Amino acid sequence: MKIDVKSDVLARHGDFLAAQTSSGLEVYVLPTKKFKTKLVRVHLRARMSERNAARTLVLNLLRRGTRRLPTMVDVSRALEGLYGALWSSAAYKLGDEQILSLRLETVEERYLPGHPSVFEPALSIAHDLLFDPHLDAGRFPDDAFAQEKLNHLREIEAQYDDKLSFAFQRLLDEMFAGEPYGRPVLGTKREAEALTAADAVSAWSAMTKELPARVFAVGDMAPADVLRFVERDFPLAAGTEAGPAAPPRLQSAAAPERVVVAKESISQSKLVSGRLVDLANLSEREFDALRIYAGVLGGGFHSRLFQSVREKHSLAYFASASLDRLRGVLYTSCGIDASDREKVSELVEAEIASLRRAPPREDELDPTRRLVISGVRSTFDSASGMVETFEAGLAARRVRTLDEVGRSVAAVTAADVQAAAARVGPPCVTFCLEGESRHGGEADGDGSA
Amino acid sequence: MKLSAIENSIGEQIFEGTLPHGLRAVINPRPEFSRTFAVLATHYGSLDSRVPEAAGELAAVPDGVAHFLEHKLFEDEKGDVSLRFSARGASCNAGTEFTKTSYHFSCADQVEQNLETLIRFVYDPWFTEKSVAKEQGIIEQEIRMYDDDPDWVVFFNLLESLYHRHPVRINIAGTVGSIRRITPDLLYRCHRAFYHPANMVLAVAGGFDRDAIAAMAERTMASLTFPAGRAWERPRIDEPASVKRPRVEQEFAVARPHVALGFKEAEPPADREAWLRRDLTSRLLLDVLFSSSSRHHQRLYESGLIDDSFDASYSGEDDFGFTVLGGETDEPDRLVEALLAVVREIGRAGIAREDFELARNRFLGRYVRAFNSAESLAGTLVACHFRRIATDDLIRTAAKLGAADLDRRLAEQMRESLCAVSILKPAKGGANGKAAR
User: What pTM, to 2 d.p., does this model score?
Assistant: First the structure.
């Protein structure tokens, strides 16, 4: 199929060139010879819902084979034969959207012996994996379905093994119960257990026909060529909205702080907290001031939390803060001894209050601005980093070049940061995954196991 | 510093040279990159459980001292060194491994000033009773964090089972008890013994000016003074060939059992070339046996014995080497038996040439991909320096291998008489159980 691509369909959008296929599918291309690989990422966007579990299950089912390469081994061997072309998928959260990300990365042919063709054959496999999976009478084969369903359940259960992520999910459960934003991105155990073969097929069908998609390409590729292969290999749905708008903000926002403590048999307790941040009428400068605020509070060695909780008081191995500027939540997290929970909570609160009372010092502000700018520039050096930073800009409806972001961040003043601090509300929920206190007890003498 | 080019099949500009006091430097200017990654590493890690004394004999040190030293170098009389990097928008960090300790920064500008700070702080130890006591509290929290990490615990339980006395069995950070025995004097002794420039390498990759960086490194190193020194020759450990114990189990706060099956190398490699062949053939072998393109992997996956958490890896140095297979599973014993059955079956049937070629293709792709990131390339350059091999030796050696080399490696490395199993079982409530051995 020959498709005419007119150069006037390309528009500069941030650091990427933006275009649409004839069906309106959004395509973003960053042509560069900087990397030794070509990266194509297909992102399907869904509002977080009880269908999160079905969609992530489908991502795993789509690895199980295609009509032409009916087993996982067939697929792996075909990709390995292309000098280890990488095909992977992941589901992650962006605001209250679940992003289903499918990624293909191939090595630049000019670096391989004999310059074999690897990109085009890999694209064809990627197409089949998404659109022409191995089906049995229109359904994923029973054994593959049962296996992947079980693995999906296990993956959900295994989240318990990473105690910090587990603590964060428990915090979200408490703070955003009933909101799309609070849902676990893999779905809940109950949702995963209830999935049927028909649910999987219908989720796959929605993914390929209904969910709005975006395709990103980074590497030595001409935009016109990218548009051609997207038209040919990824005929997905166009659209800008991932689903019905989020329900109004949670009613409990004004409720008093809740402190939830769950006992676990662990050595280091995890103390995490969440506070709502008012995002109303943010100018570009205010948007960036929030980022600097989070950096001054808990973004690195120089930050208030690290210096206070870890360096001054030796009460934690890590102490940090992060800010979700899509939903408006400030998170803090510390790894502590159980007996120090109240002390550490007070120190965290004291630093947050102090940034509200007075602007940050120049020796805090300047390194934070530099670190943020440096972090922004570092995304230039990673193909996936470029995609994710750009995608975050699309989600926030603030697409800017990284240079523009850098300039705006550099202009943030101490007064801007203090104004940003005023947008941060009181703690909604503090969650502690609490192990046994060991202070004052006998030290382990022989090995940590 | 006179720089000479290192030939490589990717056509990257990589240069090496020697700085004052014998510090080797390897640099890869990438004008198209925004950031620079620099690492100053010493060939000293958790394996070095003894420190040379003035009279030449070796004295035992508490477990975790290399890691403790790594933490403490970040503080000097003027305070926290990391803040000097932060002030320039640079991020810095460090890591201690079995055989090396690395200090690194990445930054988008003021590369030369950051490089000067890196060199100066690593060579300028400052320890006091008070600062050491403070660090003990911080590292205690770090150790506890690792104590809660099932992958870490199942792995070190395995190493404790494979090895009788080789220090590879020692937890890198030590224990809450051992780090309390660390003193400023001990840290100074270890720094003097292991942080001589002749025992170290500087690797810089990314968007910097080659000549300016070389000049700054030269100037900074020339301003420092060192007694005469040389690269540390790690004494070989007299480790029995047998495994210490075939099995270890522990109750743990996990959702499902974690299992690691380990095979211990019977003999150390004869020389560098033998080490490189051994390392490459082991990796290719594990790819053939257990990557997702292997029919054995598929069978285990479809039977539900393994899932995406399954991993197979090989680590080897001058006087130790081991393969680890494992992941999460509901039936640890059945999985161990099934993995051993795969090893037996392939041992009998041999490796198919087609499978070998696929694994080698994938290896070549991975080699090219490593040049994508300044950080990963700098890491490769450091590793190659300490192993005294050139970057391209990896692919040159791979090109010479055949399926029969993998057959030999399997027979040599994956012997049932030299394997041990480590299992974490979900705790039935209460605190983490102690290892039941």
Answer: 0.90
